[in-house]
Amino acid sequence: MAGAGDKVLQEERYKKIQEILKQNDSVKVTELVSVLNVSIDTVRRDLENMEAKKLLKRVHGGAILPEERGDQNVFSYRESKNKEKKVELAQLVCEHVSEGQAIALNAGTTNLEIAKKLAERFERLTIISNGLRIIEQFANKQGFTVIVPGGVLDQQEYALYGKKCEEDIAGYNIDLAFISINAISVTKGLTDFRIHEIDIIKAIMSSARQTIVAADSSKFEKVSYLNVCPLDHVDMIMTDSTINEDVVRKYKNSGIKVVYPQN
Predict the structure, then answer these.
(1) Edge-to-edge strands of the sheet including 189-192?
(2) Is-above-0.85 flag for pTM?
(3) What CA–CA distance (Å, rounded) separates 89 from 239?
(4) Are 13 and 38 in contact (CB under 8 A)?
(5) Are 234 and 213 in contact (CB under 8 A)?
(6) Is 96 exposed, middle or buried (0-12, 13-18, 19+ CB in 10 A)?
(7) Chain segment 166-196, per-residue pLDDT in tens
(8) Burial code of 102-114, b = ≥16 C-beta within 10 A, e = fewer?
(9) Three-class SS of residue 213?
(10) Which candidate, 188, 147, 156, places its Cα nearest to that of 33?
(11) Contact criterion met (CB below 8 Å) for 122 and 166
(12) Which of 117, 190, 259, 261 could form a disulfide with 228 if both were Cys (CB 3.0 to 4.6 A apart)?
């Protein structure tokens, strides 16, 4: 039977899990193990208890907010969320790309939509990505050069990571890097909840001539728990047409270029 001290620690973990879910809409078990510094069994037990209290909904590999309908795993849940915004953003991104360029796309659901549009619109590009779902979109594009860096597989994110992956990426000169990120803030810059993805993003940015953050409007003025970089490390942010004008003005006043579709 748990003592009073154990119960306090448990409630603190519940609070932290809820904070992460509020910021990110979803979270993986492996990330909670690292953030909470507890065993995987403890995390799973916490999620079971929190689901029983209707504080969250468990899905394969993690958990999501309780009011949302669960999908088979965290990635597919994020993939379906704000789908129309991501598709509109992907169309905008294509207008910034030219035939023959070398494009880097880190793993992420926004970049998955961008990959689909690039495959539709272009006949000759070089693509570098650690995202397996992204790479898959170019399987039948004979005019594309597709580069897959080596690394360790994150099964829940369908992504490769690790030092080998970072070193492989650093060996290329990239024209445009499109960064799929979890949260953007004027004060905190780019932040994310994917532990393995942070160093991959940094490797891509360091190898790119131009870095563009591709984020739908729901990502703005949010902070996730892992820092990536300040906003002055990127050249511009591209988003969808539902972005609030006051938010755009705030970023512009801070010297940050935000590009979005305008009627």
Answers:
(1) 183-185, 189-192, 226-229
(2) no
(3) 6
(4) yes
(5) yes
(6) middle
(7) 999 999 999 999 999 999 999 999 999 888 9
(8) bbbbbbbbbbbbb
(9) strand
(10) 156
(11) no
(12) 190
